[in-house]
Write a structure and sequence with these properties.
Strand order of the largest sheet: 1-2-4-3
Oligomer: single chain
Shape: globular
Order of helices and strands: HEEEHEHEEEEEHEH
Strand content: 25-35%
CATH architecture: 2-Layer Sandwich
Helix content: 40-55%
Structural class: alpha+beta
CATH class: Alpha Beta
Radius of gyration: 20 Å
Largest sheet: 4 strands, mixed
Length: 223
């Protein structure tokens, strides 16, 4: 093989390695730490969009922690949530505010949203339950939530608060989110498919799109 061709091949390999390293450095910066204190709650969230699926949660709400762990694991996000709130009244303020702060963390970690896929979707089954989540990091808040539960509580957790969590997330994160439970009998299974599908859809949407490059995936030029 002529030496010139060999050098070009080697240079291409070196360039590819350098670009890969630069991409990893850029992706590793997609992190955020947000704190929010009110008279009702104190919430702290740390997020790494390019993590390995590790979750750490101290909220006083075991079922919500189980659901957040599904988001981390299936989204491959590293998420840490510390929360204290007026649980002596009920869990509404704490759950809603966790959603708000997590939405803020996503927005900060994504920055100007250059190079992301933007849209994501996922179908997730769990035994008899099947849910679909479609997400758009559009810069516009909107939630379409079509989930019916056979019972009002899962353990001690009020299922109405799942909606409040996602409403807080979309408002703070400026996200369009469609959540549909397509089938289900067991309330725990239904909720778990929703959170797993949310994690998978979000993972797809925030993933870099090599063809987009450093452009914003919108004809407006911003999201």
């Amino acid at each position: 093989m002529p030496s010139g061709l060999f050098m070009r091949g080697r240079d291409t390999g070196i360039l590819g390695t350098l670009l890969e390293r630069a991409s990893r450095r850029r992706m590793s910066a997609r992190q955020a730490s947000i704190k929010r204190d009110t008279r009702e709650t104190r919430i702290s969230v740390s997020l790494d969009l390019d993590g390995t699926g590790k979750g750490s949660f101290q909220t006083g709400l075991p079922f919500l922690e189980h659901m957040l762990d599904q988001v981390a694991r299936h989204g491959l996000f590293d998420i840490e949530v510390q929360a204290s709130g007026d649980l002596d009244i009920d869990a509404h303020h704490t759950v809603e505010d966790i959603g708000i702060v997590l939405g803020q963390a996503f927005a900060e970690a994504l920055g100007d949203k250059k190079g992301i896929t933007r849209y994501g979707h996922a179908y997730v089954p769990l035994d008899e339950a099947l849910s679909r989540v479609v997400i758009d990091f559009s810069g516009r808040p909107g939630l379409e939530y079509r989930v019916n539960y056979p019972r009002a509580r899962i353990g001690g957790f009020d299922v109405d608060l799942v909606h409040e969590f996602f409403q807080g997330f979309v408002n703070a994160g400026q996200v369009t989110l469609h959540i549909d439970n397509l089938h289900g009998i067991n309330s725990h299974h239904i909720a778990e498919t929703v959170f797993k599908a949310f994690g998978r859809a979000a993972r797809m949407a925030v993933s870099p799109d090599a063809r987009v490059g450093d452009s914003v995936p919108s004809t407006k030029g911003r999201l």
